[in-house]
Amino acid sequence: MNKISEHDEKLLNLMFKRLLSFENKQVDLSELVRSLESLLHSMKYVTEEWEEKFLNEFSTLESINAEMPKMKKNEIEKLIEDAVSNLKKLIKEKLR
Fold first, then answer.
1. Buried b (16+ CB within 10 A) or exposed e, 48-61
2. What is the pLDDT of residue 80?
3. What is the Rg, in whole angstroms, of the alpha carbon atoms belonging to the chain?
4. Hey, how many other C-beta atoms are within 10 angstroms of the C-beta on 16?
5. Hey, is 2 helix, strand or coil?
6. How far apart (Å, rounded) are the C-alpha atoms in residues 92 and 88?
7. φ, ψ for residue 56 (rounded to 5)?
8. Distance between CA atoms of 35 and 1, rounded to whole angstroms?
9. What is the distance between the alpha carbons of residues 48 and 19, in angstroms, rounded to a whole number?
10. Could you tell me which residues come within 8 angstroms of residue 89 by beta carbon, excluding any fewer than 6 positions away?
11. What is the mean pLDDT of each run of 10 residues along the chain (96 residues)?
């Protein structure tokens, strides 16, 4: 079991809430990307392995945010949906 600090637990919960807000169309993609990046960099005791997995999914969102006009809408939606789902899964696993 991965024991996490109280500080990191709060940040992970904020990340999860941000992802839910995005899914509920309360924040846009660029705001989601900015907040996730900021929260990740504020974490103190994240393992390299977990951070690598997180950044892999995060980079999908970041790329789509930067290149959205060049992509088809249905492609964008599927990539975003998958990345958000995977990020939520990573966060849940870390919070256990």
1. eebeebbeebbebb
2. 93
3. 13
4. 17
5. coil
6. 6
7. -60, -45
8. 27
9. 22
10. none
11. 82 97 96 96 91 94 81 85 96 91
Range 71-95 burial, b when 16+ CB lie within 10 A, else e: eeeeebeeebeebbebbbebbeebe
Q: How much is the pTM?
A: 0.88
Instruction: Look up residue 83 and give its two tokens.
Output: 């990345």
Q: What is the pLDDT of residue 2?
A: 56
Tokens at 74, concatenated: 């249905």
Structural contact between residues 37 and 30, judged by C-beta atoms closer than 8 angstroms: no
Q: Which helix (H) or strand (E) holds 19?
A: helix 6-23
Q: Is 42 helix (H, G, I), strand (E, B) or coil?
A: helix
- Residue 43's nearest CA partner among 57, 32, 33, 54 is 54
Strands (E), 9-88: none
